[in-house]
Amino acid sequence: MKILYDYHMHSEISPDAHFSMEAMCESALENGMREIAFTDHYEFYVNGVVRPWFNERYVEKYFDTLEECRKKFEGRLSIKSGMEFGQLDISPECNKTVRRYPFDFVLGSVHKLENIDLTHLIVTEKNARSIGDAYYYHLLKLSEEGDFDCLAHMDYFKKHCAKQNLPDLYEEYQPTIKKVLENVIRRGKGIEINTACMGGILEDTMPGLEILRMYKELGGRIITVGSDSHRPERIGYGFDRVYQMLKETGFDSISVYKNRKNIQQPI
Ligand SMILES: [Zn+2]
Ligand SMILES: [Zn+2]
User: Fold this and answer.
1) Cα–Cα 20 to 30 A to 69, which of 36, 62, 225, 250?
2) DSSP 8-state class, residue 91
């Protein structure tokens, strides 16, 4: 294993995960990780919808638990604070929430379209274009305005097409994806290589080799690697393949973060 930094995982503090931070840390150590970032979910909604769990208390609980883990694993595992913010692009208020807390690292994601999680939308041949258009519209906006450090699983639409055995319409969206990457680079931000669906819904990472190549050609250099684990045993999953992909495309470092400043880590 050559990538020892897993920068995307969820603990039971996230509404959709059920394992303690401590269990995740134990597994990270067993999987040979040197450093991890807990990036629990924080979702934003349009049309005035408020979800009771995404509030100040939620983030306080997150930091308190993280602090306990830092003490417990001191000298054995480096633990960075982070959050995966969904739909940061919907209002300038979202960026203000991000800046309210002392995170080391912030992921920006598009999970929802008009408050409906992509997981609950069934992509069909008929609606694929309209769902894809909406997804990439928000991704582009996020890349222009969001106060994130790295874009999480930027071709997430692909997962939901794959679930229905449909093509991901890459050719259609390639020009938008290029603009997204250009924004990321211009703004000094980065992308994530996410292994969550490997060996399951997808064989591939999100994004895959094609986008990674385009990112390199455009001058991108900031990349984090994340398993997006919601379960301890997935930590570091597929990182050997990511290492190969990075080497194949000419990347010889990945990024780690402290106080939202990126540090290049040779691989
Ligand atoms: Zn996500
Ligand atoms: Zn996630």
Assistant:
1) 225
2) -
Q: How far apart are CA 97 and CA 77, in angstroms?
A: 28
- SS3 category, 262: strand
Two tokens, residue 102: 């002392």
Per-residue pLDDT tens for 71-95?
999 999 999 999 999 999 999 999 9
At the top level of CATH, which class does the domain 5-266 belong to? alpha beta
Q: Residue 200 to residues 87, 234, 237, 267: CA-CA distances in angstroms? A: 26, 12, 12, 26
Nearest ligand (C-alpha, residue 16): 2
Q: How far is the CA of 199 from the centre of ligand 2 (A)?
A: 17
**Which tokens is 115 given?**
């408050």
Q: Give the distance (Å) from ligand 2 centre to CA of residue 84.
A: 6
pTM above 0.85, yes or no: yes
Interior angle at CA 205, CA 200 and CA 207, nearest 5: 135
Tell me the per-residue pLDDT of 184-210, one tens digit each, with 9 for 90 and over.
999 999 999 999 999 999 999 999 999
DSSP state, 126?
A: T
Ion ligand 2: protein residues whose beta carbon lies under 5 Å: 84, 228
